[in-house]
Design brief:
5 domains; nucleotidyltransferase; DNA_primase_DnaB-bd; Dna Topoisomerase Vi A Subunit, Chain: A, domain 2; alpha+beta; 52% helix; DNA primase DNAg catalytic core, N-terminal domain; zinc; DNA_primase_Znf_CHC2; 11% strand; 26 helices; zinc-finger; DNA Primase, Chain A
Amino acid sequence: MIPQSFIQDLLARVDIVDVVGRYVQLKKGGVNYMGLCPFHNEKSPSFTVSPTKQFYHCFGCGAHGTSIGFLMEYSGLGYVDAIKELAQNVGMVVPENDDRLPPAKRAEAQAKSMALSDAMTRAADFYRQQLKAAPQAIAYLQKRGLTGEIAARFAMGYAPPGWDSLRAAFPDYADQALVESGLVIDKAAEEGGSPHKRYDRFRDRIMFPIRNTKGQVIAFGGRVMDSGEPKYLNSPETPLFQKGSELYGLFEARQAIREAGYVLVTEGYMDVVALAQLGFPQAVATLGTACTPIHVQKLMRQTDHVVFSFDGDAAGRRAARRALDACLTHAGDSKTMKFLFLPDKHDPDSYVREHGAEAFETLVREAMPLSQFLLNEVMAEGELQTAEGRARAQFNAKPMLQAMAPSSLRLQLVRSLANATQTTPAEIEALFELSKPVAVAPQRAAPPRAGSRSAPEGLEKKVIRLLIAQPVLAAQMDDASLEALAQVSPDGGALLSQLVEEARAMGEHANFAMLAERLRAAGPEFDALIGAIAADAEYDVESAGVELAGAVRQTRLKLLSTEMERLASGAMTPESHIRYRELMAERERLKQQAVTEAGSR
C-alpha cells in the first residue's frame, strides 16, 4: 500500500491541466479548460478540467476524477502504476510498504531501468531511420499493402543486415545496457571466450517496436522478409519487458477501442498493423505466447467487450483454449468475451482483403460467446449418451467453473451443463464445491455497510457537499454540530462523521481532489456527490464556510423546534418549563446570529 500522505503530496505537486493536456487538446474557457472528451465520441466539447478543483469532468458521459483517475481511465494503468507515472514526472520516488530495498539500492535499480529505457528509445529511432534508406524493406511493406502512414503510426523500422549496425547509434557498443535490454548478444559473456563476440540480435528484419501503455519502447519484434527462420524474432524478457504481460499495439489502439466498443485480439504483429490499415485499428496481439490472465486484465481496463481471433486449424483451436482459460477468472455478467475462428488458410489480413471489411465485421459480430465455447470444449468428446461420457464432460468442466467467480453467467453454465449431463444444477454445484458456506466468526455489531446506507437528504446532504468541495472546513465541525446532524439523519450523520475524519486527517492543506481520491478508496457511496460537485461552479472557500455555518445553524434550529413542540404537546412540569425557556433563548440566539451574518455580507 502506498501511504495516503504520499498520494496527498503527489496531488499537491502535479497540475491536472498539464497531465490531461498531454493527451487532450485543451482550450481556456473562463476559469476552466475545455476539450473533446477522450472517453466517448463527441463533436462539441463537454469535457472540462478545473485547475482550482484539480479535477476533470465530462458533462456528456459523466467521467470524472483526479490526475490519478485520468491516467487509469485513459492509459489503462492500474492504481499503483498511475501513481508511479505521475510521481516519475515530478521527480518523486514512490514509497511502498513491501519495498525493503535500501534507498541506495532502489536508486540503483531505477537508474538501471532508465538506462535500458534510453537504449530502447535510441534503437527505435535508429531502426526507423534505417527503414527510410532501405528500398527492399519498403518494397516488402508495400507488397503487404502497408502505407508509409501506417508504418509511421506504429514506428516501424528496419534492422540492417550487418552484425554490429547498432554501433552507429551507440558510441559505446560495449555498454552493458545493450545486452541487458536484449538489443545485443554477448557470446563472450555466455561462453567466457573472446571479448569480440558481441553482435546485434536483430539483423535484416522489419522491426516492430513494442510499447507499454505509457508509449515507451520496451522491446522489439523482428520479421524476416524472405523464407528465413525464425519468421519472427522477439526481444528476450528483460527488467522492462515480460511478454506474458504486454500486448502489441495496445498503446496505439486505446482510442480506437473506445470508439469501436470492443478490442480484437489477434495472433501477430502484422495482423495488427494490417487491420489498422484496413479500418480495424482496435486490434492488438499477444507476443508470441499464449494469452494470459494479465493480458485479459489489461484488456478489461480498456473495454468490457473482447473478441479473440484465431486461425481455424488445430493450432488456432489450442491457442483459443488457452485464451479461454485465461478469461475465466475475469468472466462476469457485465463482460462480453467472444471467440472468432477464421476459415482455413486465412488470417485477418487475408480475409479482409479477399472478402471485405463488412464481411469481417459480420464475423466479429457473430463470434462464438465464451459460454458456448466453454460448453463445446467440455463436451468435445461427444459421448453424452453414456454415463462415462457425461462424467467426462463434468470432469472437464469442473476446474473451469471453479475458476469463475460466482455470477449469473456461471449459474447459466451450471444449468446448461446439468441439462446436458442429466443432473441438476444443485448436484453440479455440490459436486464442484461451488456453493460452500463461509464461517463467520462472532463479532461486535458493525456500523452499516457503505452500500446499505441511504443517500443523505436535505441539510445533511448540503453539509456533506460543502465539506467535500472544501475539506478545510472540516475544522469548523465540532462534536455538537455532528451530533445534531446525526439526530436529523442517522445515515447522513454516519457519512458525515466518516467524511470529517478523512478531511481532518489531511490537515490544513486539504483540497477537493485530495479528498476525492481518499474517498474513492473508502467506497462508492460518495461518488455521486463527487461527480455533482465536479460539475458545479467553483466553490469559494469563504462563501462555502458561510453556507456551512448556515446549514449547521438550520439543523440546530430544526432540532430545537422539534423538542419545543414535544414539550408543549405534553403536561408541562417546572423542569419542562425551564427547559422550554432555555430552548427559546437558544433559538433566538441562533436567529439573531443569522441576521448579523446576513447584514455583514
